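Reopening this one. Same input as before:
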Amino acid sequence: MDIRILAPTGALGAGFDTAALDRGVAAGPHVIACDAGSTDSGPAALGSGTPKLSAQAVTRDLRLLLKARDTLQVPLIIGSCGTSGRDDGVDWVAGLARTVAAENNLHFKLGLIFSDQPAERLQHLYDEGRIRPLANAPVIERKLFERSHTVAMMGVEPIQELLRDGYDVILAGRASDTALFAALPHLNGADPGLTWHMAKTIECGAACAIPPDANGLLVTLRDDHFDVTTLADGSRLTPRSVAAHTLYENADPFHIAEPSGTLDTTHATYEAVDERTVRVRGSRYIEADGYTNKLEGAELVGYQTVIVGGVRDKVVIERLPELLPMAKKYFAAKILDVFDGRVDPDTIDINYRLYGTGTVLAGTEPTPLQPQELGVLITVTAPDQSTAHAISTFVAHASSHLPIPEYDGLVSTLAYPYSPPEMDRGPLYRFTLNHVATGVTPTELFRTTTEEV
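Same output, byte for byte:
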């Protein structure tokens, strides 16, 4: 067995070097696969339906990949379209693909897989006790599904149905990144352990290369091993860099869960073939007792205005931790006064993040920091944008003149780099689900449409 899989980039729209793509195409891959989304960037794409990357960037990559597919006459698989994998994300990428095809005289059979989950279906699963929380999942209740936009994460099976029917271009909703690369090898009877490990290795393109970048990798999958090769000039792979990628987005690098089971890399070995190629052996796949699909949801929680400031005064820096709680109490009274009781202060969140004193570690910095300068990010979140903006104006004003006991008279406590300092950020979303649907068949949560382009 000798199956070649081309992963041209880590994310559709992230860009890649055309010379690297040409090298991959010259190797004669049997399939081109590419991820287009993730939850890495937070809940906004899922909640709003707005892709992270621009139409111009996605179209550029898509044009090159569709042309490469046409040259090779092999399947092109793209998953998690539109960043979140929402139905409108699939429709968006499909629209771009149709435009590219028309402009470049390309013809292909197109299959679309949709992963949005209707509230009624989720409530039915919930009532039957078939929605199970993953680690650190939020507590949910039945009504959540009515206000949360939810997608299910597919495995290889919906993609394989279209591959069996000879579809040339497959645009999928939310999908396990690895499923995109594992689907075709599974159909051809490849070893499941090697297949899933190969897929995990190349899911982010050349992220496991040195230096990591947005370019591509080529895998050659054989009966007892796979070879992974970097395609870009000036890049290389080492056993350590390839092995390290099993840590990416995983708490356990040796046991990586998929809808149908778990990849076990405990006994995997990594061997340098040359400076650009690493050979991997020994992975295995443990089938699960039951099939599950992960559920991801996001909901609107308010509207936000942000203020960015900075301070270099040592006395102000030392005083801020005790002054800010006092300021918040003042703002609560101010809200009641300004809005004549029409706005409840409890519906407003005013948050200060002090960059330079352990904000990223959220108060768990192992050793106290003594910054010379402090960056201050103020966020005001309210039920609507106009209220958030109105409140932010007096928050910004008061925050720039906090009372410092060591100084007499009026003091400027924060410096703002922008005028006006208040910047409306728009809708704010939060993740609502980190759960799996149980007792499902591999394809029942997804629907497929097809067309000739």
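So the earlier flakiness isn't reproducible anymore. For the record, Residues 128 and 241 are 44 Å apart (CA to CA).
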